[in-house]
Amino acid sequence: MSQLFRRKRYNENDHSTGLNRVLGVWDIVFFGLAAIIGAGSFSSLGEAIFRGGPGVISLYIICGIACGFTALSYAEFASRIPTAGSAYTYAYASFGELIAWIIGWALIMEYSFGNIYVAFSWSDYFTSFVERLGFHIPDFLSTSYPEAKKAFESGSENSELVNAWNSAPVIGGLKFIVDIPALIINAFITGLVYIGVKESKNFNNLLVILKLAVIFLIIAVGVAYVNADNWTPTNAQGVQSFMPNGFSGVMAAVSGVFFAYIGFDALSVLSEETKNPQKNLPRGMIISLVLSTVIYMALTLILTGIVHYKKFEGIGDPLAFIFSPDNANLPWMEFVVSITAIVAITTVLLVFQMGQPRIWYAMSRDGLMPKKFSEIHPKYKTPSFATIVTGIAVGLPILFTDKTFILDFTSIGTIFAFVLVNGGILLMPQKEKLKGRFHLPYVNSKFIFPVLFLGGLAGFYFWQPEFFHNILEWSDPAEGEFRLSVTVYILINFVLVYLSFTKNLNLIPLLGLSSCLYLLTGMTHNNWFWFLLWFAIGLIIYFCYGVKHSKLEQDLNGDLK
């Protein structure tokens, strides 16, 4: 049993692996912007606005704050452990082998399943773009089988999905419905990552510059079309409100909003390919996160100011939608945004597809996965086998899953990983301060955290008294699950208040832990079911293979002999 929680010790020689160190601080920033500003702004932003109204901007702020504290924790870990592996490596150093496996398994879910959603989004924009050019891709070749079937059976108003089901040819008794563009872009990105990180960074930087330029153009042009009345729409009770669907409506959008932020943690897997990772990696992560948060807030204000929030139902291309004939009526902007969306989402695919093989690479190097996954290509100096498997792991589910499931599944796994990263920092002893390295500032939480939490709880009570009056009514079909989650969250934070007062914990990772736990309150029981199922499968693999082949176990046996 002690082996399961034995920690791995890292030293300065652990990261000499043959990977090319070619990334500087602004390369990291550009990779961060590539991952964060992409599918979240060009796709899931529309659904988030429909659920939460203009008030969804508050959720972007909450997610930004949670990710900000988490980024500092990631940066602290990166300054201590400059090796590939992201939260997996950090968990190995702080929690031990079993928790490290769980985190690694969660990250495999994040990057692989996250890229499935991004590939679907890329396909939607690409199909729409070529349609404007006069080329039509058959509906049954540009969507997934489950989405088309679900739309047909539910009588959806989405005519393209219904038509995909009705027009699809039948082969072997099954309708042939395949998202061909999603499969093609996955294959292309896999090949690019296989060739090497240097070529990938040059391609990525070019695309990010183009993407940011157009986003600033959207904001600059969109300001002139904003109608301030759209920021306080009338709710069902006839009252003008910034949150027309209430605070629970805002929290219902947590998966879509948080998905927009998950890319920044992928940067930590690039430690072994970063020049001076102890300094450049933390700076790059924090800069990219701050810039992305500001951009998301500006985009949310522009979109909700130009178009009434209810019109975003089912809209997969919100940034192009606001310039359509029924809204701002700027065809040239609609065309430019469509092209840029394809570019933006391509960069997200690139970063995620780079991150996944390096998780497998790190786990394989520790003996928890077969040695083949840590194989480095002799010419390209990349984890070649792991890259190919990643392409397959992303490509196959494209055939039988849909965006909604993938969005929720990815978000809960990532938030769970963030919780453990912040918790890991709280368990790590203070390190010696060395010049040129990032150091997480220590702020004693003894009195500050209790005041912040209890004060915030009191403020929320006076802001939403009705919610607290009904907080124990968990059987309510509309808000019961959310009320139960908030109750559990409050109880956990009372425990954190006690620990902060008695243990003098560092305030920064403690706030990161608390804010990430809050984001989990927006997850439904279905999200938890599928996450726990994935977690169970991972444990089976670990106990059948990882325990026996663990490098720590082999080293221990060698020492005993």
Query: What's the average pLDDT?
Result: 82
Strand order of the largest sheet: 1-2
CATH architecture name of the domain at 25-144 and 179-233 and 249-428? Up-down Bundle
How is the biggest beta sheet arranged?
2 strands, antiparallel
In whole angstroms, the N-to-C terminal distance is 20 Å
Extract low-pLDDT stretches: none
Please describe what this structure looks like.
Pfam families: AA_permease_2 (PF13520), AA_permease_C (PF13906). This protein has 561 residues and is mostly helical. It has 22 helices and two strands. It has helices spanning 25-36, 39-52, 56-80, 87-94, 97-132, 145-154, 159-167, 180-195, 197-222, 246-251, 254-259, 277-306, 318-321, 331-365, 384-395, 403-427, 448-463, 465-469, 480-503, 507-519, 525-549, 551-560; strands spanning 170-171, 174-175. It has a two-stranded antiparallel sheet with strand order 1-2. 52% of the residues are buried.
